[in-house]
Amino acid sequence: MDEQGVDYLGCNVELTLPEDTLVGRYNAHTGFPVKQYLENENYAPTCALLVRREVFEEVGFFDARLISGGDREFGERVHEAGYDQGYAEDAVVYHPARTRFESLAKKNFRVGRGFCQKQRYYPERYGTPGIPPRPSGSGNDDEEGDELSLATRLAFAFLSFAMLTCRGLGYYYEFLFGEERDDIPAPTS
């Protein structure tokens, strides 16, 4: 990380397809736009993150109360503390794409729950519980320049709607049935 002069470094994530399915291609297409996350939301997902020890010592660790979204919450604290964040395009992490609908739906349900939890614990940053945040990010541009067929675009649109629905269901599940976790301390900063 010294050559970048940063304390918090996001890496390029390339999703691999262990099995060629429509869901897998969708997940690979929408994947992890880490550079966009860093530029617009000041965080990198944990699968592609390097952090100096000193950062943890000052801002604290990930918030263990969060079922999802702890990487974003942590990245925002790092940014607010004034640490330099960077992106290393040439440092590549390979991550398997989710190839089954159930797996991707479960992830999105968990992400929805995490949105609500972040609002519960950090309303000053994420808003009031009961009003879900607007979705952020768009899919990656097709890096090879290949145009997606109309049928693939329609299938991806359906999957996008289905995953947004799963996030919404997770959000309202957490809103209605989730409990504040007093048994786990919040990170210190």
Automatic annotation (TrEMBL):
Superkingdom, taxonomy of origin: Archaea
Region (Disordered) location: 123-145
GO molecular function, one term: glycosyltransferase activity
Swiss-Prot/TrEMBL keywords: Glycosyltransferase, Transferase
Keyword Transferase in record: yes
InterPro entries recorded: Nucleotide-diphossugar_trans
Annotated PANTHER family: GALACTOFURANOSYLTRANSFERASE GLFT2, RHAMNOSYLTRANSFERASE WBBL
Record family assignment: Belongs to the glycosyltransferase 2 family.
Name of protein: Glycosyltransferase, type 2
Provenance organism: Halorubrum tebenquichense DSM 14210
